Amino acid sequence: MTALNTIVRASIAAVNKRTLDGRDVVDRMPDAADIQLGSGTGYGKADIAFMDTRTLAASTSENLDLAGALVDAFGATIAAAKVKAIMIENPEASLSTLTVGAAASNTFNGPFSGATHSVDLKPGDRVLFVSRTGWPVTAATGDLLKVANGAGGSVNYNIEFIAASA
Description:
Layout: E1 6-8, E2 14-20, E3 23-29, E4 35-39, E5 45-46, E6 48-56, E7 61-65, E8 67-71, E9 77-79, E10 82-89, E11 98-101, E12 118-121, E13 126-136, E14 144-149, E15 155-164
Parallel strand pairs: 4-5
Antiparallel strand pairs: 1-4, 2-3, 6-15, 7-14, 8-9, 10-13, 10-15, 11-12, 11-14
C-alpha cells in the first residue's frame, strides 16, 4: 500500500522598494499559503502521482491518456478519475512554443473549460493548475491531454500531475 501526501506551491513573492524622502519604503507581496492534499480520493486528497520529461520533435504532438496508458514510478498504469494538479514546463533552452489542451477527440477539459481551449507555453514558461475538488477524467471520452510542439525544434518538456483514482 502506498500513501501520497502532496504540497503544491503556487505563489508569487515580491519585494518592491523605493527610496522616498531619504528612507526606503517597502511593499511586500507575501507568499500564498501552500495547498495541501492528503492521501486518498475525496475532496483535498489524491493517490496518483506522475512526472516525466517527454520529448516532442518539431511540429509534432502527443495525446497523454490520463486513464489507462501512462505508467507511474512504480510501474503501475495510471487510471485517473480526477486530476487535482497539473504542472507543465517548457524549458528555457526550448526553441518552440508548446500548446497544451484541445485534443481532437476525447479531450480532457480540466482547467481549460472546454474541449477547444488551450494554453501556449513559450520557452521558459511554466503553468500550474490546482483544484482540491479535481477535474473529472472520463476514460475513452474525456481523458486525453494534448501537448503540441511548434516548428522551432525538438523540445524536452516537463510534466507533473497529481490525481485521484476515484
